[in-house]
Amino acid sequence: MALKKSELYSSLWSSCDELRGGMDASQYKDYVLVLLFIKYVSDKYAGVPYAPITIPEGASFADMVALKGKPDIGDQINKKIIAPLVSANKLSDMPDFHDATKLGSGKEQVDRLTNLIAIFENPALDFSKNRAEGDDILGDAYEYLMRHFATESGKSKGQFYTPAEVSRIIAQILGIRQADTTSSTTAYDPTCGSGSLLLKVADEARTKITLYGQEKDAATSGLARMNMILHNNPEALIWQGNTLADPKFVEDGILKTFDYVVANPPFSDKRWSTGLDPLHDTYERFKPFGIPPAKQGDYAYLLHIVRSLKSTGKGACILPHGVLFRGNAEADIRRNLIRKGYIKGIIGLPANLFYGTGIPACIIVIDKEEAHNRKGIFMIDASADFMKDGPKNRLRARDIHKIVDVFTKQTDIPKYSRMVSFEEIGKNEFNLNLPRYIDSQQAEDLQDIEGHLHGGIPTADVDALQRYWDVCPELRQTLFKANRPNYLALAVDKAAIKSTIYEHPEFSAFISGMNAHFAVWQEQASAMLRELQADSHPKEVIAKLSEDLLAHYADKPLISQYDVYQHLMDYWETTMQDDCYLIADEGWKAKTYRIIEKDKKGKEKDKGWTCDLVPKSFIVARFFAKEQEIVDKLTAELESVTARSTELEEENSGEEGAFSELDKVNKANVTARLKEIKGDREAQEEAAVLNDWLQLANEEADLKKHLKDAENALDAKAYAHYPQLTEDDIKTLVVDDKWLTALDTAIHGEMDRISQSLTQRVKELAERYETPMPLMTERVAQLEAKVNGHLERMGFRL
Prior knowledge:
Blueprint: H1 5-17, H2 25-45, H3 61-65, H4 73-89, H5 100-103, H6 107-120, H7 137-153, H8 164-173, E1 186-189, H9 196-204, E2 210-215, H10 218-230, E3 237-240, E4 250-251, E5 254-255, E6 258-263, H11 298-308, E7 309-320, H12 329-340, E8 343-348, E9 361-367, E10 376-381, E11 387-389, E12 392-394, H13 397-409, E13 417-421, H14 422-427, H15 449-454, E14 457-458, H16 459-463, H17 466-471, H18 473-479, E15 480-484, E16 487-490, H19 497-503, H20 505-529, H21 538-552, H22 561-586, E17 592-598, E18 604-611, H23 616-623, H24 625-651, H25 667-676, H26 684-721, H27 727-769, H28 773-793
Helix pairs in contact: 1-6, 1-7, 2-7, 2-10, 8-9, 8-13, 13-22, 19-27, 20-21, 20-27, 21-22, 22-27, 23-26, 24-26, 25-26
GO molecular function: DNA binding; N-methyltransferase activity; site-specific DNA-methyltransferase (adenine-specific) activity
Protein name: site-specific DNA-methyltransferase (adenine-specific)
Catalytic activity: a 2'-deoxyadenosine in DNA + S-adenosyl-L-methionine = an N(6)-methyl-2'-deoxyadenosine in DNA + S-adenosyl-L-homocysteine + H(+)
């Protein structure tokens, strides 16, 4: 059975458990990723002539497996596996597998490395061919590990990884997918880290392009080289060295230029000029614009990018917000860049996205090709759109798509985005701080003083709900009535607000229309999904499906197309993705398998069976509804009897209760007590209670037996039905019953949210102004008089 993608991730992450404790995540990541690398290249390239990676004789993963349990396993891995691989492929130095300070010594090291290798022996981790060719499963697993390593490494050691979501935005806003790329198209990252950002750009291109990267840290540049190989880009050229002081990509003494340049350089690098004389820069990166300040290297990296771009080149750089508004030398550089027309756009990101810092960052988009025609800079403030993910913030699929859509189409959206003319920027002294141009603050919910004094809901607050009234114009008149000029009163009982909204003909018609709208997409999606076959490409499937859904809900009232899109992407992440990879591997096959668990002694225990693609519940719902009704009925009867038994115990559990003489209330003790008090007239009430309990206990036992028999019979029928399923049956169960039903439920939830949002606001306004100040004062006076009266009767006089 094929390994689910989520299980691939968790099995790789479990390998880290073997290394935790002895070292920081920034160190043990090297061991895990090197092992992943060796397993991959061994599976994919061992014995393959003219392969991009040479696997020397005796240096494959199989040879590493042969070292398991040997007392000198660490030393042998270094000598027989690592050294030949490094030498044959000119790789960077790899971690020391015989390092006692990190891996322990003696038996501890032997056990740790043996267990680590065993995890990668999982037969499902076979990379001899990429499952679903074209879907980078291993690359995704690598990305998954990198995210976790960065999270665990803490604030100071997350520089080796750019969050995938930010990389995806940069790759898409460059427009490389729309360009006519060829193998001669070049992309470059001067501070490439582990290479994730550069690879995202390559993924966006429609054809294979040529990749270049440079990374200062030796260990991280080694990760980048491995990452390129793992992502089927073994020909990528990655150099180690200081990009500013010693750029490696130089032609005839001049910086090599590229079609696309991307970077996530170290923020505010205070040592950027080490080994460099900025006044006499050989490559003239600073002369046309100005020299960055000695303690702020942000513009040094940005100017390196500008210089490294062809005259038609496009680039993007992640930098701290300070570059947008800091003064002195940086102000001069900023002014010169703007006047050149090089800056196409600025995208403000949420705070706490990056692993090396909690400060907010922005993406500076450079485009030389249209520089001479540029009239302004397109700005986006996306700082409010994110979700919490543990200690960090994370961009959701909807946030990424919205940024890319808005930037690509240059769409002006109030409080989010706008094109800002150079004239306006000049009036602001070339300060690019986003709040100067985009007021992203949410409007404050103002309290109306006259409303509080005299009652009545301000008409302005009701007008602010106009998007609802546009859809349901008569609903406003149903909910509100005239009070006095500029003020309204609630026309229905406060408790009836929700039902009034939900049952109103206009709102009902809106809900029905939206349901019908989803049904149209559902039918189209069902037809498309049923066409999936083995060797289909899951990433292409979700791309097509999600774009269709997004377009289907464009410009619909009250509901955000991006909210709907997010429901699909969430479901894809949790369930549908694994299903599609199973189908891509095996076709439409509903395979059952036993769930075997091992106890602490290693003894196996059968915990039943399951089916990943078509879980038992869907078989039961479609084919064995009557049998399930019997189970449900028995379950309800059992719950009722158990509740009555519990209630009887609670009523008679005190010191004088019928169960007071029992150490524990169970069948044996109750039966023994009944024998003990048999014929005792004074214990008749106690005996009656105990007999009632005993009868309930017998009923409960009978029901449990019947329920277990019914469940076992249903389980057996369901299990036996799987081999009878046709391919059409499986498609119906998976596409209609499982996938589209789940999405239908989620999107219907959006309809409920709309009605709840309106209900909550109307109720909030009604409650805010229902008690005017004079009435409140009068009520306080009445309560005060009442309290004073009580005090006076108690002998206190005020």
